[in-house]
Design a protein that fits this description.
Distance between the termini: 53 Å
CATH class of the largest domain: Mainly Beta
Helix content: 25-40%
Largest sheet: 7 strands, antiparallel
Number of strands: 14
Shape: elongated
CATH superfamily of the largest domain: Pleckstrin-homology domain (PH domain)/Phosphotyrosine-binding domain (PTB)
Oligomer: single chain
Number of domains: 2
Number of helices: 7
Radius of gyration: 20 Å
Strand content: 25-35%
Length: about 325
């Protein structure tokens, strides 16, 4: 990577984090001259300087040695973003890694306040782009990996020309839906503020994927945050969307499932759970699901849509 680009990224960093990382970053850049550095920051557990590349995470450990996490070995990343403290600063941002062998690492922290959050989002984006490119056989032009300036989310590349990612918004403004399709923005507006904030922070990669790939002639009517199964320890980092044709789940990985409304035979809501059944040959799927009035309202809307689809024979 050209030294000028490394220098530009270093100039964007908060001074304290730059002081801790600069020597490690320059050393790694010299050792890996042909590798692109998307972002870098200080991390904990293990402690060191983390560099994000298009294919892996590299940590130059403060006690010596290097730890490398290849994206090929990772099933998913989750990001628990820190929030502003009453007396200043930010609480810790956690990067949770689930490996393809089932191992889960949940203690890694990303330092630097807003910079750490931005780095975490860059990791989610890089892993998503890696998964998409390898699934597609690695053909086509390299995705755009622009990184916005300090204090904003990194720009997520839009695979479809008429779709803009959620990522081009201020970190502090979780309610912003700038760049979303109108139907998705309207669906978010209808959701309670806590669900909307969850979708635009923890589940931002999932809604970006839906925003980019859903056909323009299929409109989203309602959307909520969910986790991919009913394990209480999981965060709701996926979205469940109701369209006029289907119920669609999009989650980390990336991964997606869809059920035509007419094919759904049962929708079972219990406290914190939602189970979708769609015929004998389709696996039953249970999600960790928001409870209370919102959960009931979402399920009622889906049931009405199922009824209309059967009557209309669509």
């Amino acid at each position: 990577m050209p030294p000028s680009e490394i220098s530009d990224l270093l100039d964007e960093m908060p001074p304290k984090v730059r002081h801790l990382c600069e020597a490690d970053v320059l050393k790694l850049a010299q050792q890996l001259p042909g590798e692109e550095f998307i972002m870098f920051t200080r991390c904990g557990f293990p402690f060191g300087t983390m560099v994000v590349t298009p294919t892996r995470l590299i940590v130059d450990l403060q006690d010596g040695g290097v730890e490398v996490t290849e994206f090929a070995d990772v099933w998913s990343f989750e990001l628990l973003e820190g929030g502003k403290k009453a007396l200043g600063g930010y609480s810790e941002t956690f990067l949770i890694s689930t490996m393809k062998n089932g191992t889960r690492f949940s203690k890694r922290t990303l330092d630097g306040g807003l910079w750490g959050i931005q780095t975490g989002r860059a990791i989610l984006e890089a892993h998503e782009q890696y998964a998409l490119s390898t699934h597609a056989g690695g053909s086509g032009p390299a995705p755009d990996r622009r990184v916005a300036s300090y204090g904003t989310r990194g720009t997520v590349a839009s695979p479809r020309g008429d779709a803009t990612a959620v990522g081009d918004t201020e970190v502090e403004d979780a309610d912003s839906d700038e760049g979303l399709r109108t139907d998705i923005a309207d669906a978010l507006e209808e959701a309670p503020s806590d669900i909307r904030n969850e979708i635009l922070t923890i589940a931002v990669d999932a809604v970006n994927c839906l925003n980019a790939y859903l056909s323009a002639d299929e409109g989203v009517e309602l959307m909520t945050s969910v986790a991919p199964d009913a394990t209480e320890r999981l965060t709701r980092n996926g979205v469940l969307a109701l369209t006029h044709r289907r119920v669609i789940y999009v989650g980390p990985g990336p991964q997606a499932l869809a059920w035509p409304l007419k094919a759904i035979t049962d929708l079972d809501e219990s406290p914190g759970r939602l189970t979708i059944t769609a015929g004998v040959n389709v696996p039953v799927k249970t999600f960790l699901f928001p409870g209370g009035d919102w959960g009931s309202a979402f399920c009622n809307r889906v049931r009405w849509a199922m009824t209309e689809a059967v009557i209309a024979d669509e």
